[in-house]
Predict the structure of HVO_2901 family zinc finger protein.
Amino acid sequence: MHTCRNCNQSFQTELALELHRDTCTKGQLFCQVCGDRFREGDATKDGWHYTCPNEDCDGDGLQDDLFHVEDVRTATH
Ligand SMILES: [Zn+2]
Ligand SMILES: [Zn+2]
């Protein structure tokens, strides 16, 4: 079983989870260092300084390493 860590929805296969992660509305931020997605609230404590919530990743800074998924989509289309 594969579970989306953003919305806790479960999927039978890793592929199904991957497809879901592209459309998951709960995963609003994207870290370009580790390629992971997470909720905005997981990346910031004060709403000002953003860091990647993955412990083994040192991505930080909105617009530096972390981006809103919508912004990435518009930029690549
Ligand atoms: Zn999800
Ligand atoms: Zn990261």
